């Protein structure tokens, strides 16, 4: 098992090394076929094979989100379209926090059909152009390939223009992959959860019982150690098999349903409340007695079988304390990747099994353990507070997806502030539950935990007035749900949104009536115009290749561009040029360009600058940031999606230094 996991991790790592080398992303391969409907009707079948980790957006969701799939058919006297392009593959639906709407997309494969009526018996072609956007964590890519179906005397064939390859050598683009690092972070987080589970009252008292079993189950010390190892491996196996079953039998579609639909999210919220109330001492959760008794009866068999059933008994008996933790790991790791639940359960079970195995092998270590008692119940109550707080996330997801308006950001924060305040008072002994022992004095560990809890409360309070709270932003509803955002009010009333002196000297930006920069920044949306201003002001150029439907661009703006240091440098030291590669603004014929990359005439603003990005920099993914001097030469290596604000500041500062040296 460990060897297989190591091979899988190695494969992922090697794949990540390969992926950063090819900058012209080929995210979808197309297969075209036809279906005869009747003597004069034919279905044109578009089949998309979508690369792993990428998703292709559907045709059907409201405006204002990512770029939807579309196919434009050339007019012809040889055929006519019947109805609209039909999506045979049902897309997945998910609420997007960035665009604040439900988004539909395809994963793995998408099949679409367009019915046509044949008006000619001679050979002819059905030509057209597709436009679509594909995204994964960290980058989005726009495509506009042509397609052609050739209908030749009753025999139908088809062809599609594939995206040409860039021949010149391209500098690798920095593109940290969340998925790859998340496997390791998921492992260590799950490992930490396993250690926490050991401190619960259902598990901790089992340690001396386990050691006693192995000390008396065999007179042969070597055999006892072997049985203890089997016991630990069995614990790991039982938990990991659970993760494997979730990954293999339920799959990514079920994971997507779990993460977006209101039914499972409300169910998880209720389950978390149920376990929290149990941890507070309202009632006890136990497995059915017949299951536990059956497992205990098999422990007497001894040997490997006895060790296994001893492990199985531990899993069952400890369920009331480990169930919420295991459930949290499975739910949080259900992101559609087969490895994630397996890695999560493996990390949890490894930490959970390790102390039992070591104490079984070295029973003398038991003398150094603290005695069980009231402190264990305190651990359980603290877990109850955490369950209560984390359970709100599931209710929040359902609330955002279906726009119920129950948990706006300040309401969510208010509940968390109350929860962690009460937890702080509990740690100080000012709040007591039914199963708690009397606290004669506050120990140093409890005091430190109380300080941490109250400090967290103090940290959250500014969020009630619009502070971004980046450390916990992933758990909170979107900032746009905040009714009172003082930072936005101050920014609107201050000079942050005013045009800088440098911009006033240059001519007014084109397209500014409908294109805007975030955080009140000012800049240009036309490269030639921005370049002219940079020459006039003797400033370096900051190019932002972006898009209206680029989720990752919005994340960069929310998490990196929001940094005051970044805003100060961009506002004072650079001429900003934001080039939208997906904008549909039609250009006057005098501004049309013929691409040296694919030979097509680019007639819209988005297509012009998508081609500019590819031909100049050999990259077709967004976001992408380039620093140029007045001679249009690159100052430093361009950057892509990276939420490290310090690194982005360094990138901008290095560009300034290089500009001064030239």
From TrEMBL:
Transmembrane segments: 183-207, 228-250, 262-283, 304-330, 342-366, 378-398, 410-428, 449-469
GO annotations of cellular component type: membrane
Lineage: Bacteria, Pseudomonadati, Bacteroidota, Bacteroidia, Marinilabiliales
InterPro entries: Cyt_c_assmbl_TM_dom, DsbDN, Thioredoxin-like_sf
Gene3D superfamilies named in the record: Glutaredoxin
Species per Swiss-Prot/TrEMBL record: Labilibaculum euxinus
GO molecular function: protein-disulfide reductase activity
Subcellular location(s) per record: Membrane
Membrane topology annotation: Multi-pass membrane protein
Domain Cytochrome C biogenesis protein transmembrane: 184-394
GO BP term, example: cytochrome complex assembly
Protein name: Thioredoxin fold domain-containing protein
């Amino acid at each position: 098992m460990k060897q297989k996991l190591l091979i899988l991790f190695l494969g992922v790592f090697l794949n990540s090394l390969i992926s950063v080398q090819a900058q012209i992303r080929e995210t979808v391969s197309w297969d075209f076929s036809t279906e005869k409907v009747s003597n004069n009707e034919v279905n044109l079948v578009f089949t998309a094979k979508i690369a792993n980790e990428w998703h292709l957006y559907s045709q059907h969701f409201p405006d204002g989100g990512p770029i939807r799939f579309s196919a434009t058919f050339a007019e012809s006297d040889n055929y006519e379209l019947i109805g609209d392009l039909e999506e045979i593959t049902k897309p997945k639906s998910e609420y997007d926090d960035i665009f604040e709407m439900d988004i539909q997309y395809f994963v793995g494969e998408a099949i679409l059909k367009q019915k046509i009526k044949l008006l000619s018996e001679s050979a002819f072609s059905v030509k057209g152009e597709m436009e679509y956007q594909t995204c994964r964590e960290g980058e989005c890519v726009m495509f506009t390939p042509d397609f052609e179906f050739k209908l030749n005397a009753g025999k139908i064939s088809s062809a599609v223009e594939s995206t040409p390859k860039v021949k010149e050598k391209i500098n690798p683009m920095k593109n940290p992959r969340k998925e790859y690092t998340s496997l390791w972070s998921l492992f260590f987080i799950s490992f930490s959860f396993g250690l926490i589970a050991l401190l619960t009252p259902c598990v901790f008292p089992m340690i001396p019982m386990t050691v006693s079993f192995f000390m008396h189950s065999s007179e042969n010390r070597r055999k006892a150690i072997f049985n203890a190892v089997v016991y630990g491996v069995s614990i790991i196996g039982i938990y990991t098999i659970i993760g494997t079953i979730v990954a293999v039998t339920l799959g990514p579609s079920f994971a997507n349903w779990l993460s977006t639909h209101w039914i499972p999210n409300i169910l998880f919220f209720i389950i978390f409340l149920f376990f929290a109330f149990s941890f507070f001492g309202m009632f006890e959760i136990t497995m059915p007695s017949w299951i536990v008794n059956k497992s205990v009866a098999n422990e007497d068999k001894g040997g490997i079988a006895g060790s296994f059933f001893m492990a199985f008994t531990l899993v069952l008996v400890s369920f009331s304390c480990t169930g919420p933790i295991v459930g949290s790991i499975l739910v949080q790791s259900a992101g559609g990747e087969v490895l994630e639940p397996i890695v999560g359960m493996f990390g949890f079970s490894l930490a959970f099994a390790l102390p039992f195995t070591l104490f079984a092998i070295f029973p003398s270590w038991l003398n150094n353990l603290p005695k069980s008692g009231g402190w264990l119940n305190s651990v359980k109550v603290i877990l109850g507070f955490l369950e209560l707080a984390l359970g709100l996330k599931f209710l929040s997801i359902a609330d955002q997806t279906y726009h119920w308006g129950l948990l706006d950001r300040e309401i969510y924060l208010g509940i968390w502030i109350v929860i962690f305040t009460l937890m702080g008072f509990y740690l100080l002994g000012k709040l007591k539950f039914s199963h708690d022992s009397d606290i004669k004095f506050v120990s140093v560990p409890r005091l430190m935990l109380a300080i941490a809890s109250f400090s967290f409360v103090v940290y959250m309070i500014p969020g009630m007035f619009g502070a971004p709270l980046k450390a916990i932003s992933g758990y909170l509803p979107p900032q746009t749900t905040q009714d009172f955002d003082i930072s936005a009010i101050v920014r609107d009333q201050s000079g942050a949104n005013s045009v800088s002196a440098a911009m006033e000297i240059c001519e007014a930006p084109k397209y500014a009536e409908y294109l805007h920069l975030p955080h009140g920044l000012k800049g240009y949306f036309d490269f030639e115009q921005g370049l002219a201003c940079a020459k006039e002001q003797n400033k370096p150029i900051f190019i932002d290749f972006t898009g209206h439907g680029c989720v990752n661009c919005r994340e960069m703006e929310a998490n990196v561009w929001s940094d005051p240091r970044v805003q100060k440098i961009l506002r004072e030291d650079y001429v900003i040029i934001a080039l939208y590669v997906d904008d549909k603004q039609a250009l006057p014929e005098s501004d049309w360009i013929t691409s040296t990359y694919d030979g097509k005439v680019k007639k819209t603003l988005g297509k012009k600058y998508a081609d500019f990005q590819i031909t100049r920099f050999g990259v077709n993914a967004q976001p992408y940031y380039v620093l140029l001097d007045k001679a249009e030469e690159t100052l430093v290596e361009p950057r892509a999606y990276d939420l490290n604000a310090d690194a982005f500041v360094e990138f901008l500062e290095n560009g300034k230094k290089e500009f001064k040296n030239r």
